[in-house]
Amino acid sequence: MTKILHDSIAVFIDASNVWQAQKAKGKMFDYEKLRAYLRKKFHPKIVRIFYYTAYPREGTRAYSTQGKHNFYTYLKKSLGFMVRKKELKRIPVHTDEGDFIEEKGNMDVEMTIDAMHNRDTYETAVFFTGDSDFLALVSYLRSEGKKVYVFSSKNNVSYELRTGSDGYTELLDIEDDIWGRELQRRSK
User: What number of CA atoms fall less than 13 Å from residue 60's CA on the CB side?
Assistant: First the structure.
């Protein structure tokens, strides 16, 4: 693995966490603007962005999921993101009230593996997540001499993660530097 430490950042985006911020803001992220914002804020020579998401199995929604896959292709091919995706796991749940399907698509392990596996290629890690489970990873990276910053929204970030990093940025307080088009609600 090539060592790229000086002035290099790795960005780890938890799509479900970012989605909560987008819903609260009523706008979508503009990922080209986001990259420019990170360059302006951290002044790195190299920015590597990892994007983690789970998507619904085709046929489980009343709408096509092709748009999601087109978006992932755009992130990967047009913007150079490392896209990590997997199908939502469908779990049958039986209760006294009835049966239903629960869907889970947690990407925490994949994000942790990438942060650990690539740790010699960056000096600063930027996490777009709010899950307190990442505190152990943040603490480890900091003990290895990395700077670690967390971006999330107030309703979706744990106290431990917000205070355990080198810095916390409230996504909803960022003006237009990362925001794109208005969020469009799917018609029912």
Answer: 13
SS3 128: strand
Structural domain count of the chain = 1
Instruction: Give the span between the Cα atoms of 133 and 111, in whole angstroms.
Output: 12
Residue 174 lies in a domain: yes
Task: Please name the residue that has the structure tokens 């047009």.
Answer: 78
pLDDT, tens digit (0-9, with 9 covering 90-100), for 135-158: 999 999 999 999 999 999 988 888
Please name the residues in contact with 168: beta carbons below 8 A apart, sequence gap of 6 or more: 149, 150, 151, 152, 157, 161, 162
- Tell me the CA distances in angstroms from 21 to 16, 18, 90, 144, 188, one per residue in order: 9, 5, 25, 30, 22
The whole-model pTM stands at 0.90
Whether residue 161 contacts residue 132, with contact meaning beta carbons closer than 8 Å, is answered with yes
Host domain of residue 76:
13-182
Is 89:103 a contact under the CB 8 Å cutoff?
Answer: yes
Specify whether the CB–CB gap between 161 and 128 falls below 8 A: no
